[in-house]
């Protein structure tokens, strides 16, 4: 059976021969054959050479998402079985499959599965879908995961914005199994965290910061830590576990702070304070009252969704760092996290240099970090390197 073909415009094939998975509408010349949204297609160069295979979405700016560069391999159940297996094997190699732990099992482009992320929280999986072709195949994918890992349940979560952009229904539902009768907890480096997998942010927790939280905690012994954008309290609690004197967490979400407070008591930490409010306002108040901290963590939500937002986003980051720096005591640490793929480490360093000059302080880079290993970066799609964590000392 011959598949519908998507023919690229002249001179547009190079990124896709180089295995970039997103074919934007502007690169497409024409479609040959009868292809419905979500169908498998072959991508061809102008002169008719095979480039790759993917799923078509005529309603999305990403017209075709590519999954395979092998002409002889259909994107069927056996293909997905193989891809998912490779991803799971990586987490096994990283030692992240302890039954009581949590990890990202599948990381979209990082695992060659654009539009599919799966997080494991103990015996439960949360599947997050952001591409039509994957959405249409969600049952098949869940079936493979269920067979391989025997989870107690798989919950499907959809980012509403992505569902709209890709043109599918935003479903949040149990795709396999049932909601657990009690709370779900995971262990992370000796601490317990409660996970709200159906109602929490993202898929319930931010697994990408796992290693960064521990690294920052090691610098926090004997210090007070300010955890700006704290969500479930990860940076604060690990700092307490490593001998921090006290922590202050700021988040605008009351639900997040309730989770953070319950995680603190779950782990028997009493010197944690949680402030509900807008981060910039609350930091202003701390500056006004002359507060200083040994460690300040800035872990904001994504400021730039794409390249067009970068200028405004950098202005936001600069303002955030101006305030953050004022709150770091002499010799203390500033931890700058950024989850905008469009902003890179060089931009962050330059921004810190501007802030240092403005406030007449010295900033030393101690470590440049990325996400945990279960969020692999595809060298063909550097957009998958979204999380940066820059640890600096301030004098
Ligand atoms: N540091 C966390 C993850 C932070 S995610 C961890 O290690 O798990 C970003 C957080 O910022 C979310 O909890 C969100 O509720 C919060 N947030 C978003 N905008 C905010 C704002 N303007 N002021 C305060 N908090 C905000």
Alpha-carbon distance between the termini? 67 Å
Q: Helix fraction?
A: 25-40%
Structure summary, number of beta strands: 20
Average pLDDT value?
96
Chemical compounds bound to the protein: S-adenosyl-L-homocysteine
**Main sheet specs:** 7 strands, mixed
Global structural class: alpha/beta
Shape summary: globular
Flag low-confidence runs: none
Rg over C-alpha atoms, rounded to the nearest angstrom:
22 Å
* Helix run count: 11
Sequence of strands across the biggest β-sheet: 16-15-14-17-18-20-19
Instruction: Please state roughly what percent of the residues sit in beta strands, choosing from under 5%, 5-15%, 15-25%, 25-35%, 35-45% or over 45%.
Output: 25-35%
What does this structure look like?
With 395 residues, this protein is α/β, with parallel strands linked by helices. It contains eleven helices and 20 strands. It has helices at residues 14-17, 77-93, 132-136, 138-149, 160-166, 210-218, 234-241, 254-266, 279-288, 310-326, 345-359, and strands spanning 5-8, 22-24, 28-32, 40-44, 50-56, 62-68, 102-107, 116-121, 124-129, 153-158, 173-177, 184-188, 191-195, 224-228, 246-251, 272-276, 293-298, 328-338, 363-369, 388-394. Strands 16-15-14-17-18-20-19 form a seven-stranded mixed beta sheet, sandwiched between helices. α2 crosses α4, α9 runs parallel beside α10 and α10 (310-326) crosses α11. It is globular. S-adenosyl-L-homocysteine binds at residues 201, 206, 209, 213, 229-232, 234-235, 250-253, 256, 278-279, 299, 301. The site of S-adenosyl-L-homocysteine (SAH) has 19 residues, from α7 and β15.
